Every structure is written in C-alpha cells, then in structure tokens.
User: Fold this.
Amino acid sequence: MLNITVSQNDDTNLSFSAFEQYQLPAPPNGADAEINNDLILKFEDEEEAIIYAAQLENLSNELDDKNTPQYVAISNIIMAIRNDEFVQSYTR
Assistant:
C-alpha cells in the first residue's frame, strides 16, 4: 500500500475538503483526510499512482480554463505523485 500526502502549504492550497468539493476522481483505493485536512491518496503500488496521475493529466487537458481552482488542484496532485520518493525510485 502506498499513501501519498498532498500537504497544504504556500504552493498547495489543496485540502481534502477541496478535493471533495471539486469532485475530482479518487484513486482506486480511495482518498482520506489527515487530522489537519491534508489530502491522503491511497494506491496499491507505484504503478497505480503513475496511472492515476496520467488520468488526471488527461482530465486537466480537457479543461478550457487553466486558471480554475480545479485545474490548479489537479496539477498539485500530479506534482505530489511525481515528487513522491517511492514513485521516483520506481520510475528510475
């Protein structure tokens, strides 16, 4: 099981509540919230996380307005997945 946390910080204003509000597709194993409302994405393995990121990228390409909060949220999730140390090791 691989859990990737998308933390709220200066670069990322994405919380679990916002994830639900934007009605973004959840990963196959779901998503959860930490006590501070950070978003936790759950995957079976690194390959599943990479596939999910690709699906989100396709979804973001379909959005006409690249300045919407939904587009920014999708981008933040994709970056969190790509920056995960286990995903990076898997893709090397």
